[in-house]
Specification:
transmembrane helix; ABC_transptr_permease_BtuC; transmembrane transporter activity; ABC transporter involved in vitamin B12 uptake, BtuC; cell membrane; disordered N terminus; 15 helices; single chain; transport
Length: 368
């Protein structure tokens, strides 16, 4: 059997693998696509919810607007002052809530799938902490707040931390639970480094970094959002290309190799993509925790799928961050402005406690 026949055989076998959800085949002259029906429907509904949430969020602010005025401003039919408020000030923030939530959901799904553990998200493993530390060093030690410098430092910091955690956790193979435990320890060490740098910095710089570290979308503008959109498009495209390999890896390395997947390259590429999702968000808006942790598992339960799915997890992440952004604006109307990162941490912390209790019982065989 030649190489082409082997690839066709692997493709035919892969198309018959039951992943636990119904698939609809879409075939054209140029490509063939297997579309999970329930996952696609749920994802569309979640994205619609995210759009509605950010649409309502645009109406809030020091100069309140109604939904009709927002729509007229977006379409260019409203007053010039309203167009300036919506298009220049509030629209990039609303867009950031959807796109960054999408990125965080995809990144969380990748690592939870690779580690086969619901605790395996970049913010828990410590990769986001590495990005944050690199940005803190760039801002306080190097003394620059240039977007491209911060974005580069954030991605490099996340990748270096990922490599360090991987090396420390590797013992005759990689076990997901060990990777998470080592990641939590590395994250704690990086947190102490951040605290030391902030306490030794000038008071104005320390306050600036501290506010940035809370994770806020309000600082996002078109100058930072435009390059973020370009990079996000590249990251999501790469994730879509490697999504079939990720599903094969869920079957085990032996099965993935049998289906024609180069396990080492696929896992490395997925790890880079997963780190890049959180690093990009950290560079533009600061660390926003627990979206990557909660989105894949919530999406899995809603779609009733046996494993995490990148599309559903991304849509759930967009919905969660958009709703958290809306909640922060509602709270600001009655109390004071609260960064969206603090809201996600408060709500996500409760979810983390639930996961820790459940995973501890499952790990030690305690009845639930």
């Amino acid at each position: 059997m030649n190489t082409t026949e082997e690839q066709r055989s692997h493709g035919a076998y892969f198309s018959r693998v039951d992943f636990g959800y119904s698939l609809k085949r879409t075939r054209t002259r140029w490509f063939s696509l297997l579309l999970p029906v329930r996952i696609a429907v749920v994802s569309v509904l979640l994205l619609v919810l995210a759009v509605i949430a950010v649409g309502v969020a645009i109406t809030f602010g020091d100069y309140p607007l109604n939904l009709l005025q927002v729509w007229q401003a977006i379409t260019g039919a409203g007053e010039e002052f309203h167009q300036t408020i919506v298009r220049e000030w509030r629209l990039p923030v609303a867009l950031a809530a959807v796109v960054f939530g999408l990125l965080l959901g995809v990144g969380g799904a990748i690592f939870q799938s690779l580690t086969r553990n619901p605790l395996g998200s970049p913010d828990i493993i410590g990769f986001d902490a590495g990005s944050y530390t690199a940005v803190v060093i760039t801002m306080l030690v190097v003394g620059t707040s240039n977007y491209w410098t911060i974005a580069s430092a954030s991605i490099i910091g996340g990748l270096v931390t990922a490599f360090l955690v991987y090396v420390l956790a590797y013992r005759r193979g990689m076990h997901g639970f060990r990777l998470i435990i080592v990641g939590i320890g590395v994250s704690a060490m990086l947190g102490s480094i951040n605290a030391y740098l902030i306490t030794r910095a000038d008071i104005d710089d320390a306050m600036s970094v501290g506010f940035w570290g809370a994770g806020s979308l309000n600082r996002v503008s078109w100058s930072s959002m435009t390059p973020s959109l370009i990079i996000a498009a590249v990251i999501l495209l790469a994730a879509a290309i490697l999504a079939p390999a990720l599903r094969r890896l869920e079957l085990g390395d032996d099965a993935a190799v049998t289906l024609g997947t180069r396990v080492g390259r696929a896992r490395l590429g997925l790890m880079v993509i997963g780190v890049a999702t959180g690093a990009l968000v950290t560079a533009a808006a600061g660390p926003i925790g627990f979206i990557a942790l909660a989105a894949p598992q919530l999406a899995r339960r809603i779609t009733s799928s046996p494993g995490v799915n990148l599309l559903a997890a991304g849509a759930m992440g967009a919905a969660l961050l958009s709703l958290a952004h809306l909640l922060s604006l509602v709270i600001a109307q009655f109390y004071r402005a609260i960064p969206v990162g603090l809201i996600t941490v408060c709500i996500g912390g409760l979810y983390l406690i639930f996961l820790l209790i459940r995973e501890t019982r499952a790990h030690y065989g305690t009845p639930r």
